[in-house]
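pasting for the record
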Amino acid sequence: MERKNNRNDSSQMKDLIQFDNPENKEKEKPREENQENGKGSSPEPAASGSCCAKDACEASKSEPVRTRNGDVGSSCCRLDELKKLPQCDIRLGTLSFTKSHIILIDVNAFSHGGRVLPQEGRDLWHSNFVKMPCSQYSLSPKPDVQLGPLKFKTGSGPVPRWNLISKQLSALAAKKAAKVEEVEEAILNYNPKYRGEWSFDALANCLKMNPSFQNHFEKLFPKIAALALKLPEQVKKGIPLLQRHRPASITLSQEQISCLLANAFYCTFPHRNTTSSNAEYHNYPSINFSRLFGNWSERKNQKFMALLQYFNVVTDEKSKPDGLVTFERRCLSDADVPNWERCKDTLQKLHVTSQGSIEEEGTGMLQVDFAASWIGGGVLDSGLVQEEILFLMNPELIVSRLFTERLDDKECLIITGAQQYSCYSGFSDSFKWVGPYDDHLQRDEWRRLKRQILAIDALHFKHQREQYSMASVRRELNKAYCGFRGHYRDKEPDIATGKWGCGAFKGDKQLKAVIQLMAAAKARRGLAFFTFGDEDLSRDLQHIYHLLVTQNMTVGETKIFVEVAITTGKGPDLRARLLLVAQGLLKEDRPSGSPQELCV
Protein backbone atom coordinates (compact mmCIF):
# COMPACT_ATOMS: atom_id res chain seq x y z
CA MET A 1 0.00 0.00 0.00
CA GLU A 2 1.60 3.20 -1.13
CA ARG A 3 1.39 6.34 0.97
CA LYS A 4 1.82 9.80 -0.50
CA ASN A 5 4.96 11.67 0.40
CA ASN A 6 3.66 14.89 1.98
CA ARG A 7 6.21 17.65 2.45
CA ASN A 8 5.48 20.81 4.36
CA ASP A 9 6.25 23.25 1.56
CA SER A 10 4.48 26.05 3.44
CA SER A 11 6.97 25.78 6.29
CA GLN A 12 9.39 28.58 7.03
CA MET A 13 12.12 25.99 6.66
CA LYS A 14 11.36 25.05 3.05
CA ASP A 15 14.02 27.31 1.61
CA LEU A 16 16.64 25.95 3.98
CA ILE A 17 16.24 22.26 3.24
CA GLN A 18 18.59 20.80 0.70
CA PHE A 19 16.53 18.00 -0.77
CA ASP A 20 19.15 17.35 -3.42
CA ASN A 21 21.69 16.40 -0.74
CA PRO A 22 23.09 13.02 -1.87
CA GLU A 23 23.18 11.95 1.79
CA ASN A 24 19.42 12.36 1.99
CA LYS A 25 18.80 10.63 -1.32
CA GLU A 26 20.95 7.61 -0.63
CA LYS A 27 18.89 4.47 -0.76
CA GLU A 28 18.54 2.94 2.67
CA LYS A 29 20.15 -0.46 3.00
CA PRO A 30 18.52 -3.19 5.09
CA ARG A 31 19.58 -2.89 8.71
CA GLU A 32 20.78 -5.64 10.95
CA GLU A 33 19.11 -6.11 14.32
CA ASN A 34 20.03 -3.35 16.70
CA GLN A 35 22.42 -4.38 19.42
CA GLU A 36 22.40 -1.17 21.44
CA ASN A 37 22.26 -1.35 25.19
CA GLY A 38 22.01 2.36 26.00
CA LYS A 39 20.36 3.07 29.37
CA GLY A 40 16.74 4.03 29.00
CA SER A 41 16.73 3.42 25.29
CA SER A 42 14.01 1.45 23.61
CA PRO A 43 16.08 -1.29 22.01
CA GLU A 44 14.19 -2.67 19.07
CA PRO A 45 15.00 -1.97 15.44
CA ALA A 46 12.64 0.37 13.68
CA ALA A 47 10.23 -1.13 11.23
CA SER A 48 11.10 1.24 8.46
CA GLY A 49 14.04 2.58 6.55
CA SER A 50 12.66 6.01 5.73
CA CYS A 51 9.27 7.36 6.61
CA CYS A 52 9.30 9.57 3.52
CA ALA A 53 10.77 7.18 0.98
CA LYS A 54 8.50 5.75 -1.69
CA ASP A 55 7.02 2.52 -0.50
CA ALA A 56 7.96 -0.71 -2.17
CA CYS A 57 5.34 -1.71 -4.70
CA GLU A 58 5.20 -5.22 -3.32
CA ALA A 59 4.80 -4.20 0.32
CA SER A 60 1.13 -5.15 0.34
CA LYS A 61 1.79 -8.71 -0.76
CA SER A 62 2.78 -11.59 1.47
CA GLU A 63 5.63 -13.56 -0.03
CA PRO A 64 4.54 -17.10 -0.93
CA VAL A 65 5.84 -19.93 1.24
CA ARG A 66 7.29 -23.14 -0.13
CA THR A 67 6.53 -26.15 1.97
CA ARG A 68 8.91 -29.06 2.36
CA ASN A 69 7.47 -30.87 -0.68
CA GLY A 70 8.00 -27.79 -2.86
CA ASP A 71 4.36 -26.71 -3.17
CA VAL A 72 3.62 -23.04 -2.70
CA GLY A 73 1.29 -22.52 0.24
CA SER A 74 0.36 -19.53 2.33
CA SER A 75 -2.68 -18.81 4.45
CA CYS A 76 -1.64 -15.17 4.91
CA CYS A 77 -3.81 -12.36 3.63
CA ARG A 78 -3.11 -9.23 1.63
CA LEU A 79 -2.59 -5.99 3.53
CA ASP A 80 -5.77 -4.48 2.08
CA GLU A 81 -7.81 -7.32 3.63
CA LEU A 82 -7.05 -6.04 7.14
CA LYS A 83 -9.25 -3.49 8.90
CA LYS A 84 -8.09 0.13 8.99
CA LEU A 85 -9.35 3.54 9.95
CA PRO A 86 -11.43 5.23 8.70
CA GLN A 87 -13.21 2.21 7.19
CA CYS A 88 -13.91 0.71 10.61
CA ASP A 89 -14.64 4.05 12.27
CA ILE A 90 -16.34 4.12 15.66
CA ARG A 91 -18.93 6.67 16.73
CA LEU A 92 -17.45 8.34 19.78
CA GLY A 93 -20.36 10.48 20.88
CA THR A 94 -19.97 13.79 22.70
CA LEU A 95 -16.63 14.51 24.34
CA SER A 96 -17.31 14.47 28.07
CA PHE A 97 -15.61 14.16 31.43
CA THR A 98 -15.71 10.91 33.38
CA LYS A 99 -14.07 9.87 36.62
CA SER A 100 -11.29 8.21 34.62
CA HIS A 101 -11.13 10.61 31.66
CA ILE A 102 -9.74 14.05 32.46
CA ILE A 103 -10.14 16.66 29.73
CA LEU A 104 -8.08 19.85 29.85
CA ILE A 105 -10.18 21.80 27.36
CA ASP A 106 -13.62 23.38 27.82
CA VAL A 107 -15.96 20.63 26.60
CA ASN A 108 -18.97 22.97 26.36
CA ALA A 109 -17.14 25.37 24.07
CA PHE A 110 -15.89 22.41 22.05
CA SER A 111 -19.29 20.72 21.77
CA HIS A 112 -21.10 23.96 20.91
CA GLY A 113 -19.07 25.66 18.25
CA GLY A 114 -15.91 23.56 18.06
CA ARG A 115 -13.77 26.07 19.93
CA VAL A 116 -10.66 24.70 21.66
CA LEU A 117 -10.29 26.66 24.90
CA PRO A 118 -8.54 25.69 28.13
CA GLN A 119 -10.74 24.29 30.89
CA GLU A 120 -10.98 26.51 33.94
CA GLY A 121 -9.69 24.94 37.12
CA ARG A 122 -7.20 25.38 39.90
CA ASP A 123 -3.58 24.63 40.61
CA LEU A 124 -3.05 21.32 42.45
CA TRP A 125 0.32 20.85 44.16
CA HIS A 126 -0.34 17.22 45.00
CA SER A 127 1.39 13.87 44.67
CA ASN A 128 -1.31 12.66 42.25
CA PHE A 129 -0.81 15.59 39.86
CA VAL A 130 1.95 17.11 37.76
CA LYS A 131 3.70 19.83 39.76
CA MET A 132 3.68 22.77 37.39
CA PRO A 133 6.41 25.41 37.05
CA CYS A 134 3.78 28.18 37.21
CA SER A 135 2.29 26.90 40.47
CA GLN A 136 2.20 29.36 43.37
CA TYR A 137 3.65 26.56 45.48
CA SER A 138 6.75 26.18 43.32
CA LEU A 139 9.29 28.25 45.26
CA SER A 140 12.96 29.07 44.84
CA PRO A 141 15.50 30.97 46.99
CA LYS A 142 15.70 34.60 46.00
CA PRO A 143 18.70 34.95 43.69
CA ASP A 144 21.73 36.99 44.64
CA VAL A 145 21.97 40.51 43.25
CA GLN A 146 24.80 41.09 40.80
CA LEU A 147 26.11 44.69 40.52
CA GLY A 148 29.04 44.75 38.15
CA PRO A 149 31.78 42.51 39.55
CA LEU A 150 30.10 42.40 42.98
CA LYS A 151 27.49 39.85 44.10
CA PHE A 152 25.28 40.57 47.12
CA LYS A 153 23.40 37.98 49.15
CA THR A 154 19.75 38.93 49.45
CA GLY A 155 19.17 36.96 52.65
CA SER A 156 15.39 36.95 52.19
CA GLY A 157 13.01 33.98 52.01
CA PRO A 158 11.92 32.02 48.93
CA VAL A 159 10.11 33.61 46.00
CA PRO A 160 7.73 32.11 43.42
CA ARG A 161 9.91 30.25 40.95
CA TRP A 162 7.66 31.26 38.05
CA ASN A 163 8.64 34.87 38.68
CA LEU A 164 12.28 33.94 38.06
CA ILE A 165 11.38 31.86 35.01
CA SER A 166 9.15 34.59 33.57
CA LYS A 167 11.88 37.20 33.94
CA GLN A 168 14.41 35.08 32.04
CA LEU A 169 12.06 33.84 29.32
CA SER A 170 10.48 37.27 28.82
CA ALA A 171 13.93 38.68 28.16
CA LEU A 172 14.55 35.98 25.54
CA ALA A 173 11.08 36.37 24.02
CA ALA A 174 11.68 40.10 23.54
CA LYS A 175 14.68 39.42 21.30
CA LYS A 176 14.52 38.91 17.56
CA ALA A 177 17.17 36.22 17.88
CA ALA A 178 18.99 34.52 20.75
CA LYS A 179 22.33 32.75 20.88
CA VAL A 180 22.70 29.32 22.49
CA GLU A 181 24.76 31.01 25.22
CA GLU A 182 21.76 33.21 26.06
CA VAL A 183 19.46 30.20 26.19
CA GLU A 184 21.93 28.48 28.51
CA GLU A 185 22.26 31.47 30.82
CA ALA A 186 18.49 31.88 31.08
CA ILE A 187 17.97 28.22 32.01
CA LEU A 188 20.77 28.20 34.58
CA ASN A 189 19.54 31.40 36.20
CA TYR A 190 16.44 29.59 37.48
CA ASN A 191 18.25 26.25 37.84
CA PRO A 192 21.37 27.55 39.67
CA LYS A 193 21.96 24.20 41.36
CA TYR A 194 23.04 22.75 38.01
CA ARG A 195 25.43 25.50 36.96
CA GLY A 196 28.69 23.74 36.18
CA GLU A 197 26.88 20.40 35.87
CA TRP A 198 24.63 20.88 32.84
CA SER A 199 26.29 21.23 29.46
CA PHE A 200 24.83 22.80 26.31
CA ASP A 201 27.51 21.75 23.85
CA ALA A 202 25.18 19.46 21.86
CA LEU A 203 22.77 22.32 21.13
CA ALA A 204 25.64 24.70 20.31
CA ASN A 205 27.31 22.21 17.98
CA CYS A 206 24.03 21.52 16.22
CA LEU A 207 23.87 25.14 15.11
CA LYS A 208 27.56 25.26 14.22
CA MET A 209 27.31 22.14 12.09
CA ASN A 210 24.22 23.38 10.28
CA PRO A 211 25.14 26.97 9.35
CA SER A 212 22.25 27.28 6.88
CA PHE A 213 19.86 26.69 9.79
CA GLN A 214 21.70 28.68 12.46
CA ASN A 215 20.07 32.04 11.82
CA HIS A 216 16.64 30.44 11.62
CA PHE A 217 17.04 28.52 14.88
CA GLU A 218 18.38 31.57 16.70
CA LYS A 219 15.16 33.35 15.69
CA LEU A 220 13.17 30.32 16.86
CA PHE A 221 14.52 30.31 20.44
CA PRO A 222 12.63 33.52 21.41
CA LYS A 223 9.42 32.08 19.92
CA ILE A 224 9.78 28.93 22.02
CA ALA A 225 10.30 31.12 25.08
CA ALA A 226 7.14 33.10 24.28
CA LEU A 227 5.22 29.85 23.89
CA ALA A 228 6.48 28.57 27.25
CA LEU A 229 5.28 31.77 28.94
CA LYS A 230 1.68 30.99 27.87
CA LEU A 231 1.53 28.05 30.30
CA PRO A 232 -0.66 29.75 32.97
CA GLU A 233 -3.25 30.75 30.39
CA GLN A 234 -3.16 27.48 28.44
CA VAL A 235 -3.22 24.93 31.28
CA LYS A 236 -5.50 26.17 34.03
CA LYS A 237 -6.44 22.82 35.50
CA GLY A 238 -4.28 20.29 37.33
CA ILE A 239 -2.87 17.51 35.12
CA PRO A 240 -3.36 14.12 36.80
CA LEU A 241 -0.57 11.56 36.77
CA LEU A 242 -1.28 8.33 34.91
CA GLN A 243 -0.27 6.12 37.81
CA ARG A 244 0.38 2.41 38.02
CA HIS A 245 -2.59 0.07 38.33
CA ARG A 246 -5.05 2.91 37.68
CA PRO A 247 -6.61 2.91 34.20
CA ALA A 248 -7.23 6.52 33.16
CA SER A 249 -7.11 8.91 30.20
CA ILE A 250 -6.05 12.50 29.66
CA THR A 251 -7.13 14.58 26.66
CA LEU A 252 -5.26 17.79 25.85
CA SER A 253 -5.21 20.17 22.93
CA GLN A 254 -2.21 20.17 20.62
CA GLU A 255 -1.64 23.80 21.63
CA GLN A 256 -1.51 22.84 25.30
CA ILE A 257 0.97 20.10 24.47
CA SER A 258 3.18 22.53 22.55
CA CYS A 259 3.18 24.87 25.55
CA LEU A 260 4.16 22.05 27.91
CA LEU A 261 6.95 20.92 25.57
CA ALA A 262 8.24 24.49 25.27
CA ASN A 263 8.60 24.45 29.06
CA ALA A 264 10.36 21.10 28.83
CA PHE A 265 12.76 22.64 26.30
CA TYR A 266 13.53 25.45 28.77
CA CYS A 267 13.80 22.99 31.68
CA THR A 268 11.19 24.66 33.88
CA PHE A 269 9.46 21.62 35.42
CA PRO A 270 10.21 21.38 39.15
CA HIS A 271 11.37 18.20 40.90
CA ARG A 272 12.18 16.57 37.52
CA ASN A 273 15.95 17.03 37.28
CA THR A 274 17.11 13.99 39.21
CA THR A 275 16.61 10.24 38.77
CA SER A 276 17.89 9.12 42.18
CA SER A 277 15.91 6.30 43.80
CA ASN A 278 14.58 8.57 46.55
CA ALA A 279 13.46 11.36 44.20
CA GLU A 280 9.77 12.21 44.07
CA TYR A 281 9.48 11.31 40.38
CA HIS A 282 12.00 8.45 40.35
CA ASN A 283 9.42 6.17 38.72
CA TYR A 284 8.71 8.61 35.89
CA PRO A 285 10.75 9.39 32.75
CA SER A 286 12.67 12.64 32.50
CA ILE A 287 10.86 15.54 30.83
CA ASN A 288 13.23 18.54 30.94
CA PHE A 289 15.59 18.68 27.94
CA SER A 290 18.76 19.14 30.04
CA ARG A 291 20.31 15.74 29.19
CA LEU A 292 19.66 16.28 25.50
CA PHE A 293 21.54 19.59 25.52
CA GLY A 294 24.89 18.12 26.64
CA ASN A 295 27.45 15.58 25.39
CA TRP A 296 27.27 16.21 21.66
CA SER A 297 26.89 13.36 19.20
CA GLU A 298 25.71 13.16 15.61
CA ARG A 299 22.61 11.43 16.93
CA LYS A 300 21.71 14.48 19.01
CA ASN A 301 22.43 16.74 16.06
CA GLN A 302 19.75 14.91 14.07
CA LYS A 303 17.38 14.88 17.05
CA PHE A 304 17.55 18.66 17.36
CA MET A 305 16.69 19.02 13.69
CA ALA A 306 13.47 17.05 14.23
CA LEU A 307 12.54 18.78 17.49
CA LEU A 308 13.22 22.27 16.20
CA GLN A 309 11.10 21.50 13.13
CA TYR A 310 8.25 20.71 15.53
CA PHE A 311 8.68 24.02 17.34
CA ASN A 312 8.96 25.77 13.98
CA VAL A 313 5.42 24.61 13.15
CA VAL A 314 3.74 25.12 16.53
CA THR A 315 5.11 28.66 17.03
CA ASP A 316 3.76 29.80 13.67
CA GLU A 317 0.20 31.17 13.92
CA LYS A 318 -0.47 30.06 10.35
CA SER A 319 0.58 26.43 10.79
CA LYS A 320 0.05 25.55 14.47
CA PRO A 321 -2.36 22.62 14.89
CA ASP A 322 -5.68 22.95 16.71
CA GLY A 323 -6.71 19.36 17.39
CA LEU A 324 -6.78 17.13 20.46
CA VAL A 325 -4.67 14.17 21.63
CA THR A 326 -5.69 11.48 24.13
CA PHE A 327 -3.29 9.49 26.33
CA GLU A 328 -4.84 6.35 27.83
CA ARG A 329 -3.23 4.07 30.39
CA ARG A 330 -4.78 0.62 30.22
CA CYS A 331 -4.43 -2.04 32.88
CA LEU A 332 -5.27 -5.73 32.62
CA SER A 333 -6.92 -6.82 35.86
CA ASP A 334 -6.39 -10.30 37.26
CA ALA A 335 -10.01 -11.08 36.35
CA ASP A 336 -9.34 -10.13 32.71
CA VAL A 337 -6.20 -12.25 32.30
CA PRO A 338 -7.14 -15.06 29.89
CA ASN A 339 -6.76 -18.71 30.75
CA TRP A 340 -4.48 -19.18 27.80
CA GLU A 341 -4.45 -22.99 27.95
CA ARG A 342 -8.24 -23.13 27.59
CA CYS A 343 -8.64 -20.31 25.08
CA LYS A 344 -10.81 -21.53 22.19
CA ASP A 345 -10.29 -18.53 19.89
CA THR A 346 -8.69 -19.37 16.56
CA LEU A 347 -5.93 -17.40 14.85
CA GLN A 348 -7.00 -14.24 13.01
CA LYS A 349 -5.79 -12.88 9.68
CA LEU A 350 -2.07 -12.37 9.22
CA HIS A 351 -0.17 -10.31 6.66
CA VAL A 352 3.60 -10.84 6.71
CA THR A 353 6.12 -8.92 4.64
CA SER A 354 9.82 -8.17 4.69
CA GLN A 355 9.10 -4.82 3.01
CA GLY A 356 7.32 -1.67 4.16
CA SER A 357 6.94 -0.24 7.64
CA ILE A 358 4.60 0.04 10.60
CA GLU A 359 4.15 3.81 10.29
CA GLU A 360 3.69 3.87 6.52
CA GLU A 361 1.89 0.74 5.38
CA GLY A 362 0.36 0.44 8.85
CA THR A 363 -1.41 3.79 8.53
CA GLY A 364 -4.93 3.50 9.94
CA MET A 365 -4.06 0.48 12.10
CA LEU A 366 -3.12 0.24 15.77
CA GLN A 367 0.63 0.86 15.44
CA VAL A 368 2.89 -0.84 17.98
CA ASP A 369 5.61 1.18 19.69
CA PHE A 370 8.31 -1.23 20.90
CA ALA A 371 8.49 0.72 24.10
CA ALA A 372 10.64 0.95 27.17
CA SER A 373 8.79 0.67 30.48
CA TRP A 374 9.76 4.33 30.98
CA ILE A 375 7.78 5.67 28.07
CA GLY A 376 9.86 7.26 25.30
CA GLY A 377 13.04 5.41 26.24
CA GLY A 378 16.11 7.53 25.52
CA VAL A 379 14.41 10.11 23.30
CA LEU A 380 15.70 12.97 25.50
CA ASP A 381 19.17 11.47 25.70
CA SER A 382 21.18 9.37 23.24
CA GLY A 383 18.73 6.57 22.42
CA LEU A 384 17.76 6.40 18.75
CA VAL A 385 15.93 3.21 17.85
CA GLN A 386 12.31 2.39 17.06
CA GLU A 387 10.57 4.12 19.96
CA GLU A 388 12.84 7.16 20.03
CA ILE A 389 12.48 7.68 16.27
CA LEU A 390 8.71 7.43 16.58
CA PHE A 391 8.72 10.10 19.31
CA LEU A 392 10.97 12.39 17.26
CA MET A 393 8.74 12.19 14.19
CA ASN A 394 5.66 12.68 16.41
CA PRO A 395 6.99 14.93 19.22
CA GLU A 396 3.59 15.29 20.91
CA LEU A 397 4.24 11.77 22.19
CA ILE A 398 7.06 13.19 24.34
CA VAL A 399 4.60 14.96 26.64
CA SER A 400 3.46 11.52 27.88
CA ARG A 401 6.73 11.42 29.82
CA LEU A 402 5.44 14.28 31.97
CA PHE A 403 2.62 12.26 33.51
CA THR A 404 3.05 8.53 32.73
CA GLU A 405 4.49 6.39 35.48
CA ARG A 406 6.65 3.43 34.52
CA LEU A 407 4.57 0.67 32.92
CA ASP A 408 3.97 -2.47 34.95
CA ASP A 409 3.73 -6.01 33.58
CA LYS A 410 0.04 -5.84 32.66
CA GLU A 411 -0.15 -2.22 31.51
CA CYS A 412 0.19 -0.26 28.29
CA LEU A 413 -0.25 3.27 26.96
CA ILE A 414 -2.34 4.13 23.90
CA ILE A 415 -1.98 7.57 22.29
CA THR A 416 -4.64 8.74 19.85
CA GLY A 417 -4.19 11.79 17.65
CA ALA A 418 -0.44 12.50 17.66
CA GLN A 419 0.72 14.37 14.56
CA GLN A 420 3.75 13.62 12.41
CA TYR A 421 5.97 16.64 11.73
CA SER A 422 9.13 15.23 10.13
CA CYS A 423 10.54 12.63 7.76
CA TYR A 424 13.62 10.53 8.39
CA SER A 425 15.88 7.90 6.96
CA GLY A 426 18.14 5.37 8.64
CA PHE A 427 18.26 4.02 12.15
CA SER A 428 20.45 4.41 15.21
CA ASP A 429 23.82 5.83 14.08
CA SER A 430 22.60 6.09 10.49
CA PHE A 431 19.47 8.06 11.44
CA LYS A 432 19.00 11.29 9.47
CA TRP A 433 16.35 13.96 9.71
CA VAL A 434 15.22 14.39 6.10
CA GLY A 435 12.76 17.27 6.26
CA PRO A 436 9.29 18.51 7.23
CA TYR A 437 6.15 16.44 6.79
CA ASP A 438 2.58 17.56 6.19
CA ASP A 439 0.21 15.22 8.01
CA HIS A 440 -3.09 14.95 6.16
CA LEU A 441 -4.78 12.21 8.15
CA GLN A 442 -8.48 12.66 8.78
CA ARG A 443 -9.66 13.66 12.25
CA ASP A 444 -12.33 11.96 14.35
CA GLU A 445 -15.31 13.51 16.15
CA TRP A 446 -13.03 14.71 18.93
CA ARG A 447 -10.73 16.38 16.39
CA ARG A 448 -7.98 13.83 16.95
CA LEU A 449 -5.93 12.61 14.00
CA LYS A 450 -6.87 9.04 13.15
CA ARG A 451 -3.57 7.63 14.33
CA GLN A 452 -3.37 5.20 17.27
CA ILE A 453 -0.04 4.27 18.77
CA LEU A 454 0.30 1.45 21.30
CA ALA A 455 3.26 1.44 23.68
CA ILE A 456 4.04 -2.00 25.11
CA ASP A 457 7.35 -2.92 26.72
CA ALA A 458 8.86 -6.38 26.28
CA LEU A 459 10.92 -8.21 28.87
CA HIS A 460 14.65 -7.48 28.87
CA PHE A 461 16.63 -10.71 29.06
CA LYS A 462 20.20 -10.70 30.29
CA HIS A 463 20.66 -14.07 28.65
CA GLN A 464 18.53 -15.14 25.70
CA ARG A 465 17.82 -18.55 27.23
CA GLU A 466 15.86 -16.89 30.07
CA GLN A 467 12.88 -16.28 27.77
CA TYR A 468 12.33 -19.99 27.17
CA SER A 469 10.14 -20.44 30.22
CA MET A 470 6.37 -20.48 30.25
CA ALA A 471 6.36 -17.76 32.93
CA SER A 472 8.10 -15.42 30.47
CA VAL A 473 5.77 -16.47 27.67
CA ARG A 474 2.71 -15.77 29.84
CA ARG A 475 4.06 -12.35 30.80
CA GLU A 476 4.52 -11.38 27.15
CA LEU A 477 1.12 -12.79 26.22
CA ASN A 478 -0.57 -10.71 28.92
CA LYS A 479 1.37 -7.58 27.99
CA ALA A 480 0.50 -7.87 24.30
CA TYR A 481 -3.13 -8.75 25.05
CA CYS A 482 -3.44 -5.72 27.35
CA GLY A 483 -2.57 -3.51 24.38
CA PHE A 484 -4.37 -5.44 21.65
CA ARG A 485 -7.65 -5.79 23.53
CA GLY A 486 -10.04 -3.06 22.40
CA HIS A 487 -13.09 -1.41 23.86
CA TYR A 488 -15.30 -2.15 20.85
CA ARG A 489 -14.24 -5.70 19.92
CA ASP A 490 -14.83 -6.32 16.19
CA LYS A 491 -15.23 -2.63 15.29
CA GLU A 492 -11.62 -1.60 15.86
CA PRO A 493 -8.75 -1.59 13.34
CA ASP A 494 -6.25 -4.41 13.09
CA ILE A 495 -2.68 -4.20 14.38
CA ALA A 496 0.60 -3.22 12.69
CA THR A 497 3.61 -4.69 14.47
CA GLY A 498 6.98 -6.35 13.98
CA LYS A 499 10.00 -7.65 15.88
CA TRP A 500 8.84 -6.47 19.29
CA GLY A 501 11.53 -6.88 21.96
CA CYS A 502 14.03 -8.47 19.57
CA GLY A 503 16.92 -6.01 19.68
CA ALA A 504 19.06 -5.39 22.74
CA PHE A 505 16.34 -6.99 24.87
CA LYS A 506 17.40 -10.30 23.24
CA GLY A 507 13.92 -11.49 22.34
CA ASP A 508 13.56 -14.51 20.07
CA LYS A 509 12.03 -13.35 16.77
CA GLN A 510 9.96 -16.43 16.05
CA LEU A 511 8.72 -16.79 19.63
CA LYS A 512 7.73 -13.11 19.92
CA ALA A 513 5.88 -13.32 16.60
CA VAL A 514 3.82 -16.34 17.67
CA ILE A 515 3.09 -14.68 21.04
CA GLN A 516 1.71 -11.62 19.24
CA LEU A 517 -0.34 -13.87 16.96
CA MET A 518 -1.93 -15.54 19.98
CA ALA A 519 -2.64 -12.26 21.78
CA ALA A 520 -4.20 -10.77 18.64
CA ALA A 521 -6.35 -13.87 18.20
CA LYS A 522 -7.69 -13.54 21.74
CA ALA A 523 -8.42 -9.86 21.01
CA ARG A 524 -10.03 -10.90 17.69
CA ARG A 525 -7.83 -8.62 15.63
CA GLY A 526 -5.70 -9.32 12.60
CA LEU A 527 -1.98 -8.61 12.36
CA ALA A 528 0.21 -6.92 9.79
CA PHE A 529 3.70 -8.13 10.66
CA PHE A 530 6.66 -6.20 9.23
CA THR A 531 9.97 -8.08 9.48
CA PHE A 532 11.99 -5.14 8.14
CA GLY A 533 14.08 -6.84 5.52
CA ASP A 534 14.27 -10.15 7.40
CA GLU A 535 13.15 -12.51 4.65
CA ASP A 536 13.99 -15.62 6.66
CA LEU A 537 11.64 -14.56 9.45
CA SER A 538 8.98 -13.67 6.91
CA ARG A 539 9.14 -17.14 5.36
CA ASP A 540 9.30 -18.92 8.73
CA LEU A 541 6.34 -17.06 10.17
CA GLN A 542 4.20 -17.62 7.09
CA HIS A 543 5.14 -21.29 7.14
CA ILE A 544 4.27 -21.75 10.81
CA TYR A 545 1.04 -19.75 10.44
CA HIS A 546 0.01 -21.79 7.40
CA LEU A 547 0.51 -25.05 9.25
CA LEU A 548 -1.35 -23.83 12.35
CA VAL A 549 -4.41 -22.45 10.54
CA THR A 550 -4.57 -25.47 8.24
CA GLN A 551 -5.21 -27.52 11.37
CA ASN A 552 -7.60 -24.87 12.76
CA MET A 553 -5.52 -24.60 15.93
CA THR A 554 -6.98 -22.64 18.83
CA VAL A 555 -4.97 -20.20 20.93
CA GLY A 556 -4.89 -22.77 23.72
CA GLU A 557 -3.54 -25.44 21.41
CA THR A 558 -1.03 -22.98 19.95
CA LYS A 559 0.25 -22.24 23.45
CA ILE A 560 0.83 -25.94 24.00
CA PHE A 561 2.53 -26.06 20.60
CA VAL A 562 4.89 -23.30 21.77
CA GLU A 563 5.52 -25.11 25.05
CA VAL A 564 6.41 -28.29 23.21
CA ALA A 565 8.77 -26.37 20.93
CA ILE A 566 10.65 -24.60 23.74
CA THR A 567 10.93 -27.65 26.00
CA THR A 568 11.91 -30.33 23.51
CA GLY A 569 15.56 -30.88 22.81
CA LYS A 570 14.97 -31.37 19.09
CA GLY A 571 16.66 -28.89 16.77
CA PRO A 572 19.58 -26.50 17.31
CA ASP A 573 17.40 -23.47 18.13
CA LEU A 574 13.80 -22.43 18.67
CA ARG A 575 13.31 -21.61 15.00
CA ALA A 576 14.15 -25.17 14.04
CA ARG A 577 12.01 -26.61 16.83
CA LEU A 578 8.98 -24.50 15.95
CA LEU A 579 9.20 -25.59 12.33
CA LEU A 580 9.82 -29.20 13.36
CA VAL A 581 6.76 -29.34 15.61
CA ALA A 582 4.67 -27.47 13.04
CA GLN A 583 5.61 -30.01 10.38
CA GLY A 584 4.33 -32.69 12.73
CA LEU A 585 0.87 -31.18 12.47
CA LEU A 586 0.59 -32.30 8.86
CA LYS A 587 1.88 -35.85 9.29
CA GLU A 588 -0.67 -38.33 8.04
CA ASP A 589 0.00 -40.50 11.09
CA ARG A 590 -0.50 -37.54 13.46
CA PRO A 591 -1.83 -38.86 16.78
CA SER A 592 -5.44 -37.99 17.48
CA GLY A 593 -4.56 -36.92 21.02
CA SER A 594 -3.46 -33.56 22.40
CA PRO A 595 -0.86 -31.23 20.88
CA GLN A 596 1.66 -32.44 23.49
CA GLU A 597 1.99 -35.48 21.27
CA LEU A 598 3.23 -33.38 18.38
CA CYS A 599 6.87 -33.61 19.40
CA VAL A 600 8.35 -35.56 16.50
